[in-house]
Amino acid sequence: MIGIIGGSGVYEITEKADNCEEKLVKTDYGDVTVSILDIFSKKVAFIPRHASGHSIPPHKINFRANIDALKNVGVSKIIATNSVGSMNTDMPPGSFVIPDDFLDFSQDRKKTFYEDKVVHIDVTEPYCPQLRDVLAKSGDVILGGTYVCTEGPRFETPAEIKMFKMLGGDLVGMTGVPEVTLAREREICYNSICIVSNYASGISEEELTIDEVFEMVAQKEGELLELIYNFIKNVDDSEECSCNHALDGAEV
């Protein structure tokens, strides 16, 4: 089964499905409502990351419950969408970027399923290259870029953005980590479509507002959904990947 974790602009995917069934999935980390969709004769499990009505702020998202719920319903490949600010003028607002690395500056989040045993997963390639290749042929995307995850909910300061750029960051957001590494711990392929909504603080000459984020996502909604639909058409959800064996050699 294919999993989609959607932020703004993706909620409408349930309306386009041939069939939609809501399922309450119980996990050790909390209960999660998952929409099971039929799209192009494939089963798709959809979770709105911020819940109904975009009501959960980024630093309060139950990442472990979301990933575990998708695992429990049989998902083997996840595509997530993340709204981001750009620190790289080659990735302007309106772009879709497929990241290939991240820097984690989040602070107060549960970041592993393994708190009672020692498990060291490899993140040399944190985002699944197999899914990247499928996304590359599914729409107009920029391949590669380093995603910087901050705690939120505030936007970043100009000094922070300057530091992130010096460290090699291209994009900045609040929701990509630990989602990506939790998926790896559950041996699920994971990749992200980063929707660039604005230039980051200190690069943009204007003050940042959440309204401009929502406005850009609304403008790109049709293209984003088309990219996701093409991905669903193109991906082979039964194809094996090294991500599906991420715990081999990871446990002490």
Automatic annotation (TrEMBL):
It catalyses: S-methyl-5'-thioinosine + phosphate = 5-(methylsulfanyl)-alpha-D-ribose 1-phosphate + hypoxanthine. This is Probable S-methyl-5'-thioinosine phosphorylase. Catalyzes the reversible phosphorylation of S-methyl-5'-thioinosine (MTI) to hypoxanthine and 5-methylthioribose-1-phosphate. Involved in the breakdown of S-methyl-5'-thioadenosine (MTA), a major by-product of polyamine biosynthesis. Catabolism of (MTA) occurs via deamination to MTI and phosphorolysis to hypoxanthine. Pathway: Purine metabolism; purine nucleoside salvage. GO terms for molecular function: S-methyl-5-thioadenosine phosphorylase activity. Keywords: Glycosyltransferase, Purine salvage, Transferase. Phosphate binds at S8, R49, H50, T175. The keyword Glycosyltransferase applies. Gene3D superfamilies: Nucleoside phosphorylase domain (3.40.50.1580). GO terms for cellular component: cytosol. The gene is mtnP. Signal peptide: none annotated. Residues 2-232 form the Nucleoside phosphorylase domain. The record marks E156, I210 as: Important for substrate specificity. GO terms for biological process: L-methionine salvage from methylthioadenosine; purine ribonucleoside salvage. Although this enzyme belongs to the family of MTA phosphorylases based on sequence homology, it has been shown that conserved amino acid substitutions in the substrate binding pocket convert the substrate specificity of this enzyme from 6-aminopurines to 6-oxopurines. Its EC number is 2.4.2.44.
